User: Which sequence fits this backbone?
């Protein structure tokens, strides 16, 4: 039975959504300052206008629904899913004002892609956008990777009673330390330290590669944010091809892999538990699936003679495979090369890698290594049970931070989420096929959107059908939040309408 | 006499017909990024002409220089200019406030370059600046400034209400 929706429910949801929206408005100060530094006055005005509008929406929401009550699990789920939609629309304002987005829908597509760390884009004439807008695109990815709610928790909300539930609603369900605000602070501490290291290293490599020093560190920051957050954006339309630099691609690969790891694993290693890397179920799962899908990629590329030698095959093939598997989406080949040169088998290998994706509670998407490990161990345990004497008690285990017992409930929850991912991948592909796109292309693109990867084989363009854009936006949103909070939002809306009907009948 | 004139006319016509076609055959075809990527196998190893705007960074390396030339909406190609090829001065490279020089490159297209570990690129044989770049106008929209002021005032009022007496108008603790 679904519970009734009360006025206070709306207050709690409105108040916390308002606070998160204020956080988004304050975040826009960073691109505005960037525009001012580069003397892009018109872009700075656009950001100024966007900031004021976003803050106004946030403060009005917070003012009209101010409450002392803390969110319960239902509220937290609705707040997490709803605030991502509000943030998507308001963050799209600078895109629209820049004139580089053909419509508000296209702008929303790009901001959802940024927040969900997907990396698909519909922005026009990307090679001529302002530094401010470039900073905004990459900052969205960086913040989206850690989580908008995590950001608001760190700076605005604090350790309220429902704070942990808010984080769970956003897909960050690892309790690193007992205090929720401290968890958020830990996540940001880890990310900011890596940001400094990544920007420095990539900036120096960019200077060595011939870039102007004043721009090199900005590019270093952009590429780091894109790799660490498994986002996949880059300042130019050629993506990583723009730099013609093996060292930059190599460093980027390192950050992609680090970003795809569970924050709990990072925290364990940072606090001295280095052996965790060797035993963690997600690392084992990731290693096995990377090796398997890379073998398949090599087979496809060698069969078709795509690259002239092993070095070329490794530089292009392995980079693309890792980019797909970590759900980053950075690319050192052209989008249409997948279709024209890599062929069906090569695209299938990348599609499988994208579908599996990164680790749980990381910046990445997809099924997640944890679920793959749990389902695999569940199958092995079931086989062991069948082969053991009837009286024998066979219990499965998996290692994540500590040894955990494998229960039927754990396996079932993992399987349910995987099935839901498969469902959105298929729905996206079917809609694409209905518009006449080839099957391999639509599956590739749909899985890329649903797993928040961002690699494209050319389907994603401003000219693609409106419905397909909406389907991809929903796929990105659901995939990033891992369904539950989105379903709760739908349920909450349905319950609200039912309540209204009941009131009318009573009246 | 008539026969001579007719022969002269015929020879002239033949020359006129042959000379331009020969010249055309020697000129490498002007191609776009889309053509090169979509028909990469067809163009692989062929000498082509490519025209585009120089993007922001001209990347000088030990063995040559990399240029990225934009030839349309979100399409660009990497051009490698070896040290042996003379490189013209690039006065204007693209940025937000600048339109970069337009450059015409003649070179060999590689679908997957052996020298650059599988990169899709053009190795230049000649590089010519065909149009100088210029500055670009990005005017401030006055109506947006007006909106900015109006919304800022509205925000100030809302913030004043919000921070005036914190907690005064909080909703009671109802258990939903």
Assistant:
């Amino acid at each position: 039975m679904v519970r009734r929706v009360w006025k206070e429910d709306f207050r709690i949801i409105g108040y916390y959504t308002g606070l998160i929206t204020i956080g988004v408005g304050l975040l826009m100060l960073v691109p505005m300052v960037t525009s001012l530094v580069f003397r892009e006055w018109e872009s700075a005005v656009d950001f100024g206008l966007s900031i004021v509008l976003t803050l106004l929406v946030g403060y009005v929401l917070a003012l009209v629904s101010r409450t002392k009550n803390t969110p319960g699990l239902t509220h937290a789920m609705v707040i997490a899913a709803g605030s991502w939609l509000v943030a998507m629309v308001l963050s799209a304002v600078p895109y629209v004002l820049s004139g580089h987005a053909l419509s508000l829908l296209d702008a929303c597509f790009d901001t959802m892609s940024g927040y969900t760390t997907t990396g698909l884009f519909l922005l026009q004439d990307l090679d001529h956008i302002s530094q401010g807008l470039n900073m905004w695109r990459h900052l969205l990815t960086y913040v989206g990777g850690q989580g908008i709610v995590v950001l608001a928790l760190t700076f605005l909300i604090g350790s309220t009673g429902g704070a942990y539930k808010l984080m769970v609603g956003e897909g960050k369900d690892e309790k690193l330390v007992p205090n929720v605000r401290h968890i958020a602070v830990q996540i940001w501490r880890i990310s900011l330290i890596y940001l400094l290291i990544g920007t420095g290293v990539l900036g120096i490599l960019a200077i060595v590669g011939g870039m102007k020093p004043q721009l090199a560190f900005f590019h270093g920051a952009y590429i780091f944010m894109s790799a660490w957050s498994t986002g996949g954006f880059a300042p130019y339309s050629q993506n990583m091809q723009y730099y013609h630099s093996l060292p930059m691609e190599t460093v980027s690969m390192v950050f992609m892999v680090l970003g795809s790891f569970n924050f709990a694993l990072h925290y364990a290693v940072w606090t001295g538990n280095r052996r965790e890397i060797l035993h963690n179920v997600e690392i084992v799962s990731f290693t096995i699936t990377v090796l398997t899908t890379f073998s398949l990629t090599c087979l496809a590329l060698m069969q078709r003679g795509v690259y002239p030698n092993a070095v070329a095959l490794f530089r292009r093939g392995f980079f693309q495979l890792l980019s797909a598997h970590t759900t980053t989406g950075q690319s050192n080949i052209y989008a249409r090369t997948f279709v024209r040169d890599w062929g069906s088998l090569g695209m299938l290998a990348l599609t499988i890698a994208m579908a599996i994706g990164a680790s749980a509670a990381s910046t990445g998407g997809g099924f997640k290594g944890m679920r793959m490990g749990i389902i695999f161990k569940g199958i092995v345990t079931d086989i062991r049970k069948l082969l053991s004497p009837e009286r024998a008690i066979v219990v499965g285990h998996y290692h994540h931070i500590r040894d955990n017992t494998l229960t039927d409930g754990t396996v079932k929850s993992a399987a349910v989420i995987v099935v839901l991912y498969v469902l959105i991948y298929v729905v996206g592909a079917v809609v694409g096929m209905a518009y006449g796109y080839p099957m391999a292309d639509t599956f590739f693109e749909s899985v890329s959107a649903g797993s928040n990867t961002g690699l494209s084989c050319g389907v994603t363009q401003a000219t693609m059908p409106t419905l397909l854009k909406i389907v991809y936006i929903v796929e990105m949103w659901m995939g990033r939040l891992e369904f539950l909070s989105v379903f709760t939002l739908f349920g909450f809306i349905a319950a609200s309408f039912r309540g209204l009907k009941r009131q009318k009948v009573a009246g | 006499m008539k026969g001579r004139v007719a022969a002269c006319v015929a020879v002239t016509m033949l020359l006129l017909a042959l000379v331009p076609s020969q010249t055309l055959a020697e000129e490498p075809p002007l191609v776009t990024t889309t053509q090169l990527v979509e028909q990469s196998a067809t163009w692989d190893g062929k000498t082509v002409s490519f025209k585009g705007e120089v993007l922001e960074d001209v990347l000088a390396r030990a063995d040559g220089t990399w240029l990225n030339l934009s030839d349309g909406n979100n399409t660009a190609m990497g051009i490698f200019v070896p040290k042996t090829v003379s490189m013209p001065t690039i006065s204007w490279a693209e940025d937000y406030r600048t339109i970069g020089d337009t450059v015409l490159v003649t070179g060999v297209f590689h679908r997957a370059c052996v020298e650059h570990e599988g990169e899709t690129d053009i190795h230049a044989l000649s590089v010519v600046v065909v149009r100088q770049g210029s500055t670009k106008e990005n005017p401030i929209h006055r109506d947006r400034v007006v909106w900015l002021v109006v919304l800022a005032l509205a925000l100030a009022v809302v913030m004043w209400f919000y921070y005036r007496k914190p907690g005064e108008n909080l909703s009671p603790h109802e258990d939903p």
